[in-house]
Specification:
64% of the residues lie in helices and 0% in strands. It is an all-alpha fold and 126 residues long. Helix 2 (65-86) packs antiparallel against helix 4 (93-115). It is found in: Cell membrane; Membrane.
Length: 126
């Protein structure tokens, strides 16, 4: 048993060493292969206070933010529903009611968004 534990620790140490060496190799290759020529655009720091080439204040409309959040919510629903569907036969009726509550909460969220006009791209963001 102790031989197996020491072997596991040795393998973990080797993996840590390989990861460290790969990180050092990546940094070294970057320094070695990166172009070193300096231009006027590269020299000043970003907070130097110079003039920008465009209008700096732009009004950003959150027109599709609600739709994006709803997409993320229902995408997460699928992430939870797939493993639930795989083990549904073994877990039984309790899992069915749990998933029913989960889907009901998400359905109420989409109903609320629909009622408030969040699904209408012309209405949301105003």
């Amino acid at each position: 048993m102790t031989a197996r534990i020491s072997t596991d620790f040795a393998l973990a140490g080797v993996m840590l060493l390989v990861a460290l060496l790969l990180g050092i190799l990546a940094l070294g290759l970057n320094r070695w292969l990166a172009p070193t020529t300096r231009t006027s655009e590269k020299n000043p720091p970003p907070e130097y206070g110079g003039r920008t080439g465009h209008k700096t204040w732009v009004q950003f409309r959150l027109r599709y933010a609600v739709l994006a959040l709803l997409f993320v919510a229902f995408d997460m629903e699928m992430v939870f529903m797939f493993p639930w569907a795989v083990v549904f036969k073994e877990v039984g009726l309790v899992a069915f009611f749990d998933m029913f509550v989960f889907v009901a909460i998400l359905a109420s969220a989409i109903f609320f968004a629909w009622k408030e006009g969040g699904l209408d791209p012309e209405k949301c963001g105003r």
